[in-house]
């Protein structure tokens, strides 16, 4: 029995260590640095290009069946944050998305991937646009490695619904947190 417990402990330890190497990268943004004009919303008083950043990820955990991406502003003055982007059902063999994959038309998304509705009211990427004069907001871009190949969502699914389903199916996640203020 002690050998079985030790084997289970080593397996859990190995999986945890492997999951810690799961990382998210971007050619368009970095942790702690300000977002570029490309990732700023066009509207609500902001005059950016509203382009989702290029993203790539490495070392997903064993058993990953699909990926999801979220972009969320926890500093938005709403009491519930602000969902800028949700994407689910990205096939397990995909390891990157090009810049502007989050366009409303979805033409740059991998086959089968679904963008949920952001808090601007449409399915697709909505860039940063904090209130003028606020301290810079943090924008959490997260890649989720999931234990299911498909979540039952569509382009009308809210960020809260997608977030709930992600937390129910997550194996590991990695994050980049740039910021932006105006």
TrEMBL record:
Highest taxon in the source lineage: Bacteria
One Pfam family of this chain: PBP
Alphabetic keyword roster: Signal
UniProt signal peptide: 1-19
Classification via NCBIfam families: PRK09818.1, YbhB/YbcL family Raf kinase inhibitor-like protein
Protein name stated in the entry: Uncharacterized UPF0098 family protein
Source organism: Obesumbacterium proteus ATCC 12841
């Amino acid at each position: 029995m002690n050998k079985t417990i030790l084997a289970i402990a080593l397996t859990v330890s190995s999986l945890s260590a492997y999951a810690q190497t799961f990382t998210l990268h971007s050619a368009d943004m970095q942790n702690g640095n300000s977002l570029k004009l490309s990732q700023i919303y066009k509207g609500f008083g902001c005059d950016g290009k509203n382009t989702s950043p290029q993203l790539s990820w490495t070392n997903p955990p064993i058993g990953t069946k699909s990926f999801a991406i979220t972009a969320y502003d926890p500093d938005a003055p709403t009491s519930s944050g602000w969902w800028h982007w949700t994407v689910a059902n990205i096939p397990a063999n995909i390891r990157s998305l090009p810049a502007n994959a989050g366009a409303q038309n979805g033409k740059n998304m991998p086959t089968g991937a679904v963008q949920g509705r952001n808090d601007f009211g449409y399915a697709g990427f909505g860039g940063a646009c904090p209130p003028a004069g606020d301290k810079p907001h943090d924008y959490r871009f997260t890649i989720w490695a999931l234990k299911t190949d498909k979540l039952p969502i569509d382009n009308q699914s809210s960020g809260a619904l997608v977030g709930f389903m992600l937390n129910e199916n997550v194996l590991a996640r990695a994050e980049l947190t740039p910021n932006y203020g105006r």
